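Hello everyone,

My group is preparing for a crystallization screen and wants a predicted model to guide construct design. The compound we'll soak is NAP. Before spending weeks at the bench, it would help to have a computed complex in hand. I've included the protein sequence and the ligand's SMILES below. Output in structure-token form would be ideal because that's what our pipeline reads.
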Amino acid sequence: MKEETLKNKVAVITGASHGLGRAVAERLAAAGAQVVLIARRDEPLNEAAESIRAAGGAAAVYPCDVADSAQVLETASAIQAAYRKVDILVNNAGIPAPRTFEGTDISAWDEVIAVNLSGVFYLTRALWSSLCAADSAYVINISGTAGLRGGGSPAYGGSKFGLTGLNHAIAQAGKAHNIRSTILYPGGMDTGWRGAPIGELPRSESMDPQAVATMIAQLAASPAEFVVNEAVLNPLNHPFM
Ligand SMILES: NC(=O)c1ccc[n+]([C@@H]2O[C@H](COP(=O)([O-])OP(=O)(O)OC[C@H]3O[C@@H](n4cnc5c(N)ncnc54)[C@H](OP(=O)(O)O)[C@@H]3O)[C@@H](O)[C@H]2O)c1
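Reply:
Good plan to model first. Here are the tokens for the complex, ready for your pipeline.
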């Protein structure tokens, strides 16, 4: 019999129709959580939810562009009306950006900051009362190693560095409400990011999103007496250290 470590928990996951977000939704649902899936496009979102239900999990879909504050407010209200509380929020939705300073125009900058940074604030702020209503909620923010070392992309590095500051603020505000917050800095994952073919690189170069999702599910189920403030995850051969 599988162990339902997240039974009776409500988990909201953004970017839940593909890649890491989908893997996280599957793992949290397998651990017994009712998962609330957010992404922009209906079809992949419904497909992800149906596959979770077929495996015995509980999944609901809320199509929403996290970069659109009005849509986020509407979506958060609908989630609040459907669920008494939110126990787990995984802010995972993210998009890549032009790799160079000179190759980044203002619209690319605005779009990437809106999704990767503002979207996290919009949704976390809009769901704050639902997180406070849980006994011990958990906010997990997905950054990337670009959030530690920057790199050539001003918009991507800027958005992920900004997310570190936002995560600190969430952690500080959360103390009064028993809300934990973790920022994760993963390196390369095998999700087809930037159109890369999936399954071609060895695991030592590109992490399996399912494996990263397993770690996130364990984090979400960890005892509420401590918090992992931040964690860096890298493929074994990555020259990070
Ligand atoms: N893959 C890597 O190598 C890597 C490395 C380090 C960090 N990360 C970070 O990990 C996270 C997940 O990456 P991934 O590789 O799993 O991405 P992915 O496979 O490209 O999936 C992105 C997901 O986000 C959704 N999404 C994109 N824009 C959105 C928006 N504006 N509003 C709502 N949903 C949106 C997409 O669905 P729709 O398009 O339908 O909205 C999709 O479900 C990102 O934050 C990324 O920065 C990835």
